[in-house]
Amino acid sequence: MGRRKIDISEVKDANNKQVTFSKRRTGLFKKANELSIMCDAEIAVVMFSPGDKPYSFGHPSVHVVADKFLQQNHASNVEPESSASHEVGDILGQHQQLSIVKCHISEEQKKATELDKREKEQEAAQLSQYKELQVSPALQRMVEDYVDAVEVSESMLLLAEEPVDLLVTMTKE
Amino acid sequence: MGRRKIDISEVKDANNKQVTFSKRRTGLFKKANELSIMCDAEIAVVMFSPGDKPYSFGHPSVHVVADKFLQQNHASNVEPESSASHEVGDILGQHQQLSIVKCHISEEQKKATELDKREKEQEAAQLSQYKELQVSPALQRMVEDYVDAVEVSESMLLLAEEPVDLLVTMTKE
DNA sequence: CGACCTATCTATAAGCG
DNA sequence: TCGCTTATAGATAGGTC
């Protein structure tokens, strides 16, 4: 899907790997969002970049989907393997989140522990740029209250055609 | 990406919605797999079809990624919301799984509770068709032991360019 | 770096058997 | 209900600023 065909094997160049990760991560989240909208399906995506930074997408939320996934499994009985136990609720619950409508949060976010009041304000300022576009007032409110989001990808705003509740969390690479 | 442009809104026709879900689900898993390979990133995808059937993809496994995601969150301290608690280990642990190399499992699988010995054998037979292609012996072994897989998408086999450990679980729609 | 810019490569919406 | 096929819309590799 680019100027030239490439085979699906690990990208050796560290820099290029990072670029590829960012581009494809965005694409994957976009696809997940479209699928959740078009088919009214619940989807959760969690991933770690080569730099081990966490990213996630969820509709209506990673928690809801993970929880439901678990429930269903209780009905089935396949290879009941008991591993380390952690609360699903914590997966997203304790993670920085942002419920948004018609948009996608991307990049530009430092870890919660690295954020200070001022940085948050800058983030809010950056986000306001996009408010004028086609984002609902509901999103604006949520965005203003959000603690970790930094930038709303304009391209994603333009791509969403209808209101959707989705959750996207990211940490600066 | 088809004969004609369509807007990203809920597909009303139930049948078409199902078709769209299947196609895009396959595409999403393929993208997730490519990303995990190219960037050596850990990724977990869990979703429910409009018919509420569970599907998941994980590299190296949904469990590993979910667990790691949780760990990292412990370091952060953002909106610690306590919700229903379930063990992350159960998410994939109790779900039908299949660790495969260089391939993607698709469709054609009934719930574990609906599977009987004979069906499993048929599945194994179908899978053997693809073994000759370019799948590693490791995959063959895993596939033979697998209890729920039914069909390995040939197209996916052809697309993967290098060994990868990934987990894909599906239930027949 | 991060944001854009397009030539290309893919994913897929419709069709067809 | 299913797969395949094919014309297009969409994603993105490589480059530029």
Q: Mind explaining what this structure looks like?
A:
Chains A, B: Residues 1-61 form the MADS-box domain. Two copies of one chain form a homodimer. Chain A has 173 residues and is an alpha+beta fold. The first copy, chain A, has six helices and four strands. Chain A has a four-stranded antiparallel β-sheet, with helices on both faces. In chain A, a hairpin with a 5-residue loop joins strand 1 and strand 2. In chain A, helix 4 (117-131) packs antiparallel against helix 5 (137-145). The longest helix of chain A is centred in the first third of the chain and has 25 residues, at 14-38. The radius of gyration of chain A is 17 Å and the shape is elongated. Chain A starts with 13 loop residues before the first helix and ends with a strand. Chains A and B meet through helix 1, strand 1, helix 2 and helix 3 of A and helix 1, strand 1, helix 2 and helix 3 of B. The structure holds a DNA duplex (17 and 17 nucleotides).
